Amino acid sequence: MRYYEALGLEPPRLKLDAADLQKRFYARSREWHPDRFSTRPPAEQQTALEMTALINDAFRTLRDPVGRAEYVLSEHGLEASAQRGKDVPADLLEEVLELNMALEEADGEQAARSLAQFEAALAALDGQLAGLFAAWDAAPSPDNLQPVRAALNRRKYIANLVRDARKALETARES
Amino acid sequence: MAYSDKVLDHYNNPRNVGSLDKSDQNVGTGIVGAPECGDVMKLQIKVNDATGIIDEAKFKTFGCGSAIASSSLATEWLKGKTVDEAMAIKNTDIVNELSLPPVKIHCSVLAEDAIKAAINDYKAKGATRKPAAGVEA
Fold this sequence. Notes:
The complex is a heterodimer. Chain A is mainly α. Chain A has 7 helices and no strands. Chain A has 2 domains: 2-63, DnaJ domain (Helix Hairpins), CATH 1.10.287.110; 85-174. In chain A, helix 2 runs antiparallel to helix 3 and helix 6 (108-138) runs antiparallel to helix 7 (142-174). The termini of chain B are far apart. Chain B is an alpha+beta fold. In chain B, helix 1 (5-12) crosses helix 2. Chain B has a single domain, classed as Alpha-Beta Complex (Sufe protein. Chain: A). A 3-stranded antiparallel sheet of chain B has the order 1-2-3. Chain B has helices at residues 5-12, 65-78, 83-87, 91-98, 105-124, and strands at 27-34, 39-47, 54-62. Classes of the chains: A mainly alpha, B alpha+beta. The A-B interface holds A 79-81, 83-85, 87-88, 90, 92-94, 96-97, 100-101, 152-153, 156-157, 159-160, 164 and B 31-38, 40, 42, 60, 62, 106, 109-110, 113.
């Protein structure tokens, strides 16, 4: 996987240490900095530019756990856009619909309660996600990647509920 | 990225927002979602037993403007159609009507999926429903 390779992180792991990632990013950026190639042949200058761009993209993607997992999933043909909703359980969709409708009618107090509830659900899911990351790192098989896809699908809905509850709370405070 | 006038029109004045009785034997309900953006769409149809024509369609969508417009347009198109005609609605019809850009095509796919899910739900209820006129039991 190019992003992991670019930062010298092969074999790819879903769990990464943020400080180590940053250190590698700085080191690689220095190594490939275009200024250091200004007197080199054009082909080498071009390579330095391309490497710098790749290193930037790699760092931006891998430093965020969700972005990182989405990258690994897409490298395995499990990108969210290829799912066509079939990987989201019907009861979750129904629940999300109900929660959204309740939020539309909520006053400030109810919105605040919902927000706390959704934030707790998001934190719980992130805990679960960390466990799934560790499982794939220990045994990187497709069987261990599918649950990550399912958890991220769920996470997107809960993250949207958190966003919408914040908005509802703001609206309630303004009125 | 700017929304087309038609998308804005449906977004600002959505048609047929609401719910039908899910337990009604003549109502088909489809709930679908797009995990990449966290959209959720509920689309319902009510079919007239005697004529086989969809005489009511309602939707409720939580998502972006294009998702709301796609489902709003779908309910407009569904009314007055037979179930078979409704089954033939393609996401590309919605894309063309609303001039959706490539990044929003999945919204039209979602609407097509919702139509099909609602029709399938209606058909699945057929086993317990009185046969429609002209259809042998």
